[in-house]
Amino acid sequence: MCVRGIEIQAVIGTLHHERNSHQKILIDIEFEYDAKTASDTDKLETAVDYSSIVEDVIRNAKESRCRLLETLAERTADLLRKNPVITSGKVTVKKPSAIKNIEFVSAEANFQNCI
């Protein structure tokens, strides 16, 4: 399952002006789970509720106020890791406004669920 381009306004960065204002960040999440039951039954209650996951990712990013993209990527991976249905995944956090004349800078965090 992939959810790309979760757009969030959040405090992130190390510079003084970054600590006092919200900036646009984009978060991509990819995760694996056993989708066989969901595909066999075609019922939402047997699938991963990605809408709920996106809400949690947004709330986490807004509340974290991280200085580093790497920290936010790891915290988001920790959030997904807590879901017992998800077996593994990857989080990418992108910051489009980090440096002038670039598309974005990004940090990634990969995880395995050990629950």
Provide the β-strand percentage band: 25-35%
The CATH topology is what?
GTP Cyclohydrolase I, domain 2
Structural class, by secondary structure, is alpha+beta
Radius of gyration: 15 Å
Q: Mean pLDDT score, rounded?
A: 93
Question: Which term fits the overall shape?
Answer: elongated
Helix count equals: 4
Can you tell me the CATH class? Answer: Alpha Beta
Termini Cα gap: 19 Å
CATH superfamily: GTP cyclohydrolase I, C-terminal domain/NADPH-dependent 7-cyano-7-deazaguanine reductase, N-terminal domain
Output the strand order for the largest sheet.
1-2-3-4
CATH architecture: 2-Layer Sandwich
How many distinct domains? 1
Helix content: 25-40%
Low-confidence stretches: none
Order of helices and strands: EHEHHHEE
Number of strand segments? 4
Biggest β-sheet strands, sense, barrel:
4 strands, antiparallel
Characterization of this structure:
The protein has a four-stranded antiparallel beta sheet with strand order 1-2-3-4, covered by helices on one side. The radius of gyration is 15 Å and the shape is elongated. The longest helix is centred in the middle third of the chain and has 15 residues, at 50-64. The chain has one domain: GTP Cyclohydrolase I, domain 2, CATH 3.30.1130.10. The protein contains four helices and four strands. 33% of the residues lie in helices and 33% in strands. The protein is of the alpha+beta class.
